[in-house]
Records
---
Amino acid sequence: LAHLSNKAIYLLWLGNLRYQCILLCRQYVQKLLSTQEASYLQSLRNLKKKINLLQSSTGKQTTRTINSTCPRLDGPINGRKLGRSHAVGHEVHVLCDPGYELVGSESRVCQESLTWSGQQPTCRDINECASSPCLNGGTCVDEVNQFSCVCAKGWAGLTCQTTAAAATLPAATMGPFVRPSRCTIMQGTTHCTCEPGYTISGRDSNTCTDIDECELFHNGQAGKLCLHACVNTPGGYRCSCPIGYNVTRDGRSCKDIDECATRQNNCTKDQMCINTYGGFQCVRVDCPKIPNATYVKTSPMRCERNPCPVDNKACSQTPNSFSYHYLAVVSNLSAPRVMFRVSALRPIGDTLRFSLLGGRQARRHFTVQRSDRGTGQLMLVDPVQGPATLEAEVEMSELERRVQLGRYITKVTMFVSQYEF
Ligand SMILES: *[C@@H]1O[C@H](CO)[C@@H](O)[C@H](O)[C@H]1NC(C)=O
Ligand SMILES: *[C@@H]1O[C@H](CO)[C@@H](O)[C@H](O)[C@H]1NC(C)=O
Ligand SMILES: *[C@@H]1O[C@H](CO)[C@@H](O)[C@H](O)[C@H]1NC(C)=O
Ligand SMILES: *[C@@H]1O[C@H](CO)[C@@H](O)[C@H](O)[C@H]1NC(C)=O
Ligand SMILES: *[C@@H]1O[C@H](CO)[C@@H](O)[C@H](O)[C@H]1NC(C)=O
């Protein structure tokens, strides 16, 4: 075939076809013919290519083999490949990382067939527990290149080889605060580590003991860890607050819960809710019952005397008004300090007098001073340790030429919390 010219083959075939065409239908077949011609030319080209290839390959066989390589080989995961040449006749080797074992062929050769000998190697995690290293009923936990033993009750040590009595920590204390350590044996040396928040302990470094942060940082330079109470937890700690307080966002301090604002109180409708540090108080303002006078509530916290009958001296001597104030303070508040100020809105007469009423209790904690001509102040004289409720009454009288014109009573109730925050 190769010796015939292309044109000769073409004409040979074409002539035959055309002859048949004329006999049938010229127009229809003309179309068919052009496609046939194209496809014929294409197959002829392919044929020529193949012949050329065949011819050249016979002459250049050796060159081609030397030039060829096997497919690229990557090192296995958790291992590596030694040897870079992928050419025919060359070898590569595979090594696994420590803690992994080889599965498949360690060496592979690039063969004449341009394929690698042997099987695709992989590196598999060695099961350190396979040899059952934990004794006396201990449970082995396999990890990469290491293992740890969770010992049965009464046993301790890296491989649970010693009785708990021999170990520094009895097995009975094993719990969330005492954990087994993680140990690695490398070249005959044991290296043990603990989870964060734990520290190595035990005779063989075989256990990890929880660090008591509360104890450790109790009076540390950074100050106490917690404002109120520190609770040691396995591997950590948290701060807690007394009832009536919530731990602040920083987790260290306590902030008072406003029970009055959050409806966490059970005060009735006729009571007022007073938020205190760590709690709340329900208070009810009732006007006093005093002979010869009657009082009426003019605001939730104030009572005023009804007008006295003319010439009723006993009535006109009674206080003109009572006002009520409630203060919430923390325990051990520094003193002396001003707790409350009283002044006359529209003073009449020539003199204002301020005095402290109430029994001995009031006098022990408070005193009343004038701060300016028209103002008196209730002072706390000593720090008060809570929880406590203190009451004090401040009387303000107006006088004109030493004759009393009016008396006004201010009742102050102080709720002292149990804590200093
Ligand atoms: C084969 O070898 C020739 C000459 O040595 C070189 O020019 C060519 O790039 C090589 N081909 C491959 C695929 O390596
Ligand atoms: C306080 O904490 C409790 C529970 O942790 C929560 O339900 C409540 O909303 C908190 N109150 C305030 C005022 O943050
Ligand atoms: C509110 O509840 C407390 C207990 O939580 C109880 O001691 C107190 O008497 C109650 N007060 C009222 C007004 O119901
Ligand atoms: C004051 O009240 C008492 C008892 O309520 C009564 O005996 C007395 O007469 C009254 N005084 C005046 C001046 O009304
Ligand atoms: C009260 O406060 C003072 C100083 O602010 C402090 O030294 C003292 O220990 C506190 N007392 C109590 C009982 O907390």
---
Amino acid sequence: MDTIIGVLALDYPAEYSELQVLGKGVSSILQHHSVLGELEEFVFLIDQLRSKLARGDFLDSADLISLRPYCRQEPEGSLLDRLREELGQFDFEAAVVSVEKLGEPSRLRLQARVDERNGGKNMETKPLVLIVDDAPSNIQLLAGLLNSSYQIKVATGGLRCLELAEAEPRPDLILLDIQMPDMDGYEVCQRLKQSEITENIPVIFVTGKDQVEEEELGLSIGAVDYITKPFSPAIVEARIATHITLKQQNDALRNLAMRDQLTGLYNRHFLIDVATKRISHAHRHQQPLCLIMIDIDFFKAVNDQHGHSIGDDVLRDVAKIFVAQSRNEDVVARFGGEEFVFLLDGCDLQAGVNKAENVRLSLENSCVQGLAITASFGLAQLAHGEDFIGVLNRADEAVYAAKSKGRNRVEVAEITPS
Ligand SMILES: [Mg+2]
């Protein structure tokens, strides 16, 4: 590694000025405790240190001193000393590990705090704005402006921005600088727009680049707005508020359009849309994918004997059981009437069988609405070159097989040679 990391121990102040000092911005952040909470700040500093190490930038004692106020307790204090030693010995790999370890407890506490906040359902959470800029002073300026109306997350580089944009809770808006050392804002924006996960997050460029062509380029790659520096705080606030409102309205509409009204599960329309994307992704990356079709046994009898209102309650309760049995990345949809579909990403046949069997069992054991409700399951693993209709039809045939073999069971579809 041809990178040089300069470490200046406090003991050698004479050499201090000879080293490249990158810690000034960090110190400026430290003077603004009111804007970011202490935990956020510390995690922010750790991330900065990590990205400096990754870039091979100089680290100096100012960086380490910045961390000192946060490291009053064991084991943080001793970790910091170890980090200082490792940097002194140019042991970069060990230093990165120490930096990670140093930040971990704070990261966990931060996550717990976020979870706690999200757990309180009645608590109105403020929209989340992600501010991305390589200059901490710019971040500070925007954060100070928005802090009272929004939750704030910050990133000092493009790669970190992409990471934070995908992580829960996802931002409602991203303020994006263009000139950054690791990845420029145009590329970050393009990547955000290409990803299914982040494509709907509005991006506003906030930049010193004030040429018309630059603005045109920014808007052409999917940004909703373009703000040039120096900006008027009132105008920035107003534009951000507008785009956040639009985003929330869009989210509400999208949610309505993709949900089944009765059960709250995804509807058939959404399933077809997302399945098509995930199937082409699975083919492209040669990853396994399974689809389970589920049909509730003797559902017509439930409606006939207990009325449609109880029938609806059964469907709602069954949906809850299905959701409880699914991972975040699974898509659980009501396909129609009493038919449901699980779309399982990155799931091979054996895992699919286990999943179907678990869902079948938990339904059998639940005594939904005081009734003995069971279902028949048809499982199909995506075959080479197969499309959604193909895998869906095979799962459907497997459901029929399960029905004819006595119901309340899982049948696996055979792969038909194409
Ligand atoms: Mg910049």
